[in-house]
Structures are given as structure tokens and as C-alpha cells.
Automatic annotation (TrEMBL), chain A:
<comment type="similarity">
    <text>Belongs to the binding-protein-dependent transport system permease family.</text>
</comment>
<dbReference type="GO" id="GO:0005886">
    <property type="term" value="C:plasma membrane"/>
</dbReference>
<feature type="transmembrane region" description="Helical">
    <location>
        <begin position="29"/>
        <end position="51"/>
    </location>
</feature>
<keyword id="KW-0812">Transmembrane</keyword>
<feature type="transmembrane region" description="Helical">
    <location>
        <begin position="63"/>
        <end position="84"/>
    </location>
</feature>
<feature type="transmembrane region" description="Helical">
    <location>
        <begin position="164"/>
        <end position="185"/>
    </location>
</feature>
<keyword id="KW-0472">Membrane</keyword>
<dbReference type="Pfam" id="PF00528">
    <property type="entry name" value="BPD_transp_1"/>
</dbReference>
<dbReference type="InterPro" id="IPR035906">
    <property type="entry name" value="MetI-like_sf"/>
</dbReference>
TrEMBL record, chain B:
<dbReference type="InterPro" id="IPR003593">
    <property type="entry name" value="AAA+_ATPase"/>
</dbReference>
<feature type="domain" description="ABC transporter">
    <location>
        <begin position="2"/>
        <end position="237"/>
    </location>
</feature>
<keyword id="KW-0067">ATP-binding</keyword>
<dbReference type="Pfam" id="PF00005">
    <property type="entry name" value="ABC_tran"/>
</dbReference>
<dbReference type="InterPro" id="IPR027417">
    <property type="entry name" value="P-loop_NTPase"/>
</dbReference>
<dbReference type="InterPro" id="IPR046342">
    <property type="entry name" value="CBS_dom_sf"/>
</dbReference>
<protein>
    <recommendedName>
        <fullName>ABC-type quaternary amine transporter</fullName>
        <ecNumber>7.6.2.9</ecNumber>
    </recommendedName>
</protein>
<keyword id="KW-0547">Nucleotide-binding</keyword>
<dbReference type="InterPro" id="IPR003439">
    <property type="entry name" value="ABC_transporter-like_ATP-bd"/>
</dbReference>
């Protein structure tokens, strides 16, 4: 079984031409990207708004929780039945692709919404109070304080949505659209188990690779002040625009001495 | 000058946080609002920069009604320091300090220079500039908080329990440094605390508030200790207020006795006294030793360090404390450079206190008014 899966995966026939592994990967990624984009467009502003204002929290959070319970396959068939007549005039695949994208977007919204909302809500109330008290407008508080500090959770919501979407995008094949799901559906039809196993493996690897990529982006997009990355490397990396003396002094100090090296600690009256 | 004129804050549920508060915070002075939890002190402070809107009454800044200004504009002109510093964790120390200058559109170079200078002023050198708040101790964060509030050089500052989240040693140090800074800057400050000791130490005038948002007494610290207006204030300023009141009385000329001293490393064998004072090369007192318990030369470990040292030009409280805490019952008095001047006995300090005049009630009809 393993050997035949390997054979399917390495067969040059499967790596070129239409319907090949690379082509299906691209289609799969394309569907996932569109779905995630649309979901983010809805869920991130909504999550930020809920977190920032504290309003609509009950509604938003419960709606997101409820949306998690929607069976994707059921929703997919429902969408096809509903939308198919509307697309019947247009070129073939849209009638299958659009319902698939809607299902994937619906799947992606809850984790993205939850991440954005929880991220903003979790910002230190003192920092928020200080920001407002220093004269930032509501939007400035959101843009300069709340969003940057919510980034770790926004990212984690987005990454978890991405994993789910990439895994679930295989469903598109059920209704006839392309993507890596083709190998699973087609393989099942002709009882080609190596093809099914190989296709699943590609989906899994793709999900991991994309997550790794997002993790790398997150490293650079999130302030080191939040991640606790306080190595000299990160300090060097952000040394733009500081006077040389500050930089060299910063480098010579290891983070460990921060707590104790307070040169101002002087006692006014010496004991006698 | 910040003027509260009949300011009341009443919440929709009927709770009155601040009741008809009329108060003046004079220019260049620190006005402390102090009182137990629920007395409305923080609410009063937050109404100045309109983080909370008053229900009635007006608050004016140098004659301008704050209610008519745009809230964000008003706030940019007021330094704001809060209990847990509220630094932005995603920004470096330097970026934090530059917040307000950037908001008001100050030039880049000017902003940077000013921020670096302020960090220096609050006791954090250039090597802290690129660190993140999570890499600082609570006291250091609070220093950054103060620097950040000062960055756009606002004439007015609001400080809401700025030093209460740090340990007592650091708190004392931050208070001293802030007072030194204020000597240079002369900001108009409203300072909120629940700690009467801090209020007495920091305030040019102290407003004691009572639960329900009533102003119980407004007076200078020394006056407040000497003449609490009622039982509540008396109780709140504490039982040892007589002793603490001495903080505000400069020591008169005391009959100082010259003291036989030895330097560290000398032998104490030929001293015939129960205690002898040890000094360093510059005649700075180090501690007391008991000659009969020491055979060889006097080492640093043998020093009795229980006694405090008072400056001759300092307050009576420090002199009395030096006398009381000294194991030899002779209080060590030094000059401003820290060099030994002489010693004084407790009864001599007490005599000086007895002879000194107590602050008098200047206006018996209105005992709450600050002494002019």
C-alpha cells in the first residue's frame, strides 16, 4: 500500500498536464485563498469592531460558535441546489466552484472572527486607557494600539482557519469542481486506493507547508515586544534609525540584567 | 490652573461619584486628591481630561472650559500617567515615549531628541530606548510612563496612583525623583493616591475626599496634619500625625555635641565609652561599634547599622528619628555633604520641638482653607 502510494506520487504522468498534481495544488490553493480572503474581509473588521466597542459581543460570538456546527457537506449541497439555476447560463464550472467557495468561507469565518475579537479584547486595558487618555481618537487607538497588540491572536485565528480550509477544500471535488479533492473522488470511483492515499497526503503536506509559511510571516509581522523574542538578533534586526551608541549599549546588555541593573538605586541616608 | 466649579458626577443608576466639587489646582503646584476607595478621587481626575464627562458643573484649564474643547485635542495637551503605566507592549520604550509628539505632528528629529533626553531625565539611559516594556521592571515601566506623559511638554499632568503598583523602596525612590523633576519643570499636577503618606509627601496641597464624592478638607500637608477639620480627616491622616507633622518643621539650631570618632580599620581599644562612632576617610558616619566587644581593628562587619542619619538642615522628624534609632541614644547629624557635624540626644530634640511653634489656625471660621 505504501509502496503503491509512493509509486503514484512519483509517477511522472501525475506531475504534468491538466489535472496533474501541480495543477490541482494550484487550483486548491486558489480556492482556499479566495475563500480565506472573503472570510477575512468579513470576519476581521467584524471581530475588530466587536473587540473595540464591546458591542455585539454576544451576537458575534454566538453566531461564530453556531457557524462552527454547520456541516460543510450539507451546506455545499444546499448551495449547489440554490445557486445552480442562477449559474446555468454561464460557463460550466462556476456553478460548482462558487458554492464551494461559499462553504469554505463560512467555515473560515468563525476562527478568524474569534481571533480578531479575542485579540482586541485581550489588549491590556491600561494600555488602551493610556492611549485614549493621551489623545488618540477611537480609530487611532484601534490602529496603533489594539491591532498591533492583537496580532498574535489574529494570526492564530487565521492560521487555524487556513488549516481547516485547505483540508476541507477537497469537498469542492464532490460537486465536480477541481482541486486536490479530485484525486480522492476520482480514486474512489475506480477503487484506486493509492491515488486516494496519495491525494490525501498531498493535502496534508500542503496544509503544513502553508502553515509553516504563515508562521514565518507571523514572526516578522508581530512585534518582538509581544512574542518575548528579545534576543540580540531581534534587536539588531530592528536597529534602524537609532543612534549608534544606543544600539551598541543595548547589545552589550543581556536581557537578564534588566531587572537588577538599576543604577539609580541610591539610599538617601546612610545607616550609622 | 485647573478649576473645578461645582462639578458633580452622577451615574444613570443614581450613584453619585463626585458631589459638587469645587477646587483649584494652582499653576506649577502638585494638588493631591486622597481618600479611601469610592471617594471619587479617580473620577475627579478623569473628568479633567474628559475620560469621564461631568454630569454638571465645569472644569476649566487656565480659564478655558474643557467641556467646549475637542476631547482628543484637550488630552494631547495633558500629560497622563496611570497606575500600571499602560505602556504599549508592541512598541519599544523610545516609541512609547514618542507617542504624543507624533500625534501632534512634531518633527521626527525633534521628537527623537526630546524622547532620548526625557529617558535620561527619568533615570533610564540610552540603552533602554530599544527595549520593550516586557523587558522592564515595574518601576522602570513607570519611569517610561512618566517620560511618555512629559514628551509633548504639556503644562498640566494628571497622575492616577502612578507609584502604587511598585514595591515600597522603588516607590520612595520614584517619588523623590519625581519631586526633583517637578522642581525643574513646575507642571500643574493633579495627583491621585489612596496613601496619605504619599499625599503628604508629594502634595503642595492635599484634598482629602470622603466616600460619596465629598471634599472633606483642602489644605497644605503640614496644616492638614496639625488641624484635621473633622473626625474623618483626623482618622484618615492617621494616628502618628504628630510625629509625621515634624517632617514639615525644619530643625532649629540644635545643641550638637562633638563626637569622638574612629576610622574604619583603627582599633577601638583605648576608647572608654559604651559606643563609639565609626567614620570613613571623609568623616562620613558609617555606624556604631561597642569597643569592649571588639579586640582588634574595627571591620565593616562589626558595625551596628540600626541608626539613621539626619541632615542638620533637614526636618525635625529626621533628627528625632536619628536620636531614637541610635544604639548609643546619640543621634548622628551630618551636613549637606554627608560629613559628621555632631550628635544630639532625644531629650534635646524634644526640647527643640517643645520650643518650636505649632502651625496656627489662621482663619478659625474656615479651618479647611489652605494657609495663605
Amino acid at each position: 500500500m505504501i509502496a503503491s502510494t509512493w509509486q503514484w506520487l512519483t509517477d511522472p504522468v501525475n506531475w504534468s498536464g491538466p489535472g496533474s498534481i501541480p495543477n490541482q495544488i494550484l487550483t486548491h490553493l486558489w480556492y482556499s485563498a479566495i475563500a480565506l480572503f472573503v472570510a477575512s474581509l468579513i470576519a476581521i473588521p467584524a471581530g475588530l469592531a466587536i473587540g473595540h466597542t464591546g458591542r455585539g459581543r454576544f451576537f458575534g460570538v454566538n453566531l461564530a460558535a453556531a457557524a462552527r456546527a454547520i456541516p460543510s457537506l450539507g451546506l455545499l449541497f444546499l448551495m449547489v441546489l440554490w445557486l445552480f439555476p442562477k449559474f446555468s447560463g454561464s460557463s460550466g464550472s462556476a456553478a460548482f466552484v462558487v458554492p464551494s467557495l461559499i462553504v469554505l468561507a463560512v467555515l473560515a469565518i468563525p476562527p478568524i472572527l474569534a481571533g480578531a475579537y479575542a485579540g482586541v479584547e485581550g489588549v491590556d486595558p491600561a494600555a488602551r486607557d493610556a492611549a485614549k487618555g493621551m489623545g488618540m481618537t477611537g480609530m487611532q487607538v484601534l490602529r496603533r494600539v489594539e491591532i498591533p497588540n492583537a496580532m498574535p491572536l489574529i494570526f492564530s485565528g487565521f492560521r487555524s482557519a487556513t488549516l481547516q480550509v485547505i483540508a476541507t477544500a477537497t469537498l469542492a471535488a464532490v460537486v465536480g469542481a477541481d482541486g486536490l479533492g479530485r484525486f480522492l473522488i476520482d480514486g474512489q470511483k475506480i477503487r484506486d486506493y493509492p491515488q486516494m492515499a496519495g491525494g490525501s497526503l498531498v493535502v496534508a503536506i500542503l496544509a503544513l507547508v502553508v502553515d509553516l509559511l504563515l508562521g514565518t510571516i507571523q514572526r516578522y509581522a508581530v512585534s518582538p515586544g509581544l512574542t518575548g523574542r528579545r534576543t540580540s538578533a531581534s534587536r539588531r534586526g530592528r536597529s534602524d534609525g537609532v543612534s549608534g551608541s544606543a544600539e551598541s549599549a543595548g547589545r552589550s546588555n543581556t536581557p537578564l540584567d534588566v531587572e537588577i541593573s538599576d543604577p539609580r538605586r541610591t539610599v538617601d541616608s546612610q545607616p550609622s | 490652573m485647573i478649576v473645578f466649579d461645582g462639578v458633580t458626577k452622577k451615574y444613570p443608576d443614581g450613584t453619585v461619584a463626585v458631589h459638587d466639587l469645587t477646587l483649584e489646582a494652582p499653576t506649577g503646584k502638585i494638588t493631591v486628591l486622597v481618600g479611601p476607595s469610592g471617594c471619587g478621587k479617580t473620577t475627579s481626575l478623569r473628568m479633567v481630561n474628559r475620560m469621564i464627562e461631568p454630569s454638571s458643573g465645569t472644569i476649566s484649564l487656565d480659564g478655558k472650559d474643557t467641556g467646549r474643547m475637542k476631547a482628543s485635542e484637550l488630552r494631547r495637551g495633558i500629560g497622563y500617567v496611570i497606575q500600571h503605566a499602560g505602556l504599549f507592549p508592541n512598541r519599544t520604550v523610545l516609541d512609547n515615549v514618542e507617542t504624543v509628539p507624533r500625534l501632534v505632528g512634531m518633527g521626527k528629529k525633534e521628537t527623537r531628541d526630546r524622547a532620548m533626553q526625557l529617558l535620561e531625565q527619568v533615570g533610564l539611559g540610552a540603552d533602554y530606548a530599544k527595549r520593550y516594556p516586557s523587558q522592564l521592571s515595574g518601576g522602570q515601566q513607570q519611569r517610561v510612563g512618566v517620560a511618555r506623559a512629559l514628551a509633548a511638554d504639556p503644562p498640566v499632568m494628571l497622575m492616577d496612583e502612578p507609584f502604587s503598583a511598585v514595591d515600597p523602596v522603588v516607590r520612595d525612590q520614584l517619588q523623590d525623583e519625581f519631586l526633583r523633576l517637578q522642581d525643574d519643570l513646575g507642571k500643574t499636577i493633579i495627583f491621585v493616591t489612596h496613601d496619605i503618606d504619599e499625599a503628604i509627601k508629594m502634595g503642595d496641597q492635599v484634598a482629602v475626599m470622603r466616600v460619596g464624592g465629598y471634599l472633606a478638607q483642602l489644605a497644605e500637608p503640614a496644616y492638614l496634619l496639625a488641624h484635621p477639620v473633622d473626625d474623618f480627616v483626623a482618622d484618615f491622616v492617621g494616628r502618628d500625625r504628630g510625629y509625621r507633622g515634624l517632617s514639615f518643621q525644619a530643625a532649629p539650631r540644635l545643641p550638637l555635641a562633638s563626637e569622638r570618632t574612629i576610622t574604619l580599620g583603627e582599633s577601638a581599644r583605648d576608647v572608654d565609652d559604651d559606643w563609639v562612632l565609626v567614620v570613613d576617610g571623609d568623616n562620613h558616619p558609617l555606624g556604631w561599634v561597642e569597643p569592649r566587644r571588639i579586640d582588634g581593628e574595627v571591620t565593616s562587619e562589626r558595625l551596628h547599622r540600626g541608626g539613621t542619619v539626619a541632615r542638620a538642615s533637614g526636618p525635625l522628624r529626621a533628627v528625632l528619628d536619628a536620636a531614637l534609632s541610635s544604639p548609643s541614644r546619640r543621634g548622628v547629624v551630618v551636613d549637606d555633604s554627608g560629613a559628621l557635624v555632631g550628635t544630639v540626644r532625644p531629650h534635646e530634640v524634644l526640647t527643640a520641638i517643645e520650643e518650636a511653634e505649632r502651625p496656627v489656625v489662621e482663619n478659625p471660621d474656615n479651618p479647611g482653607a489652605p494657609a495663605a
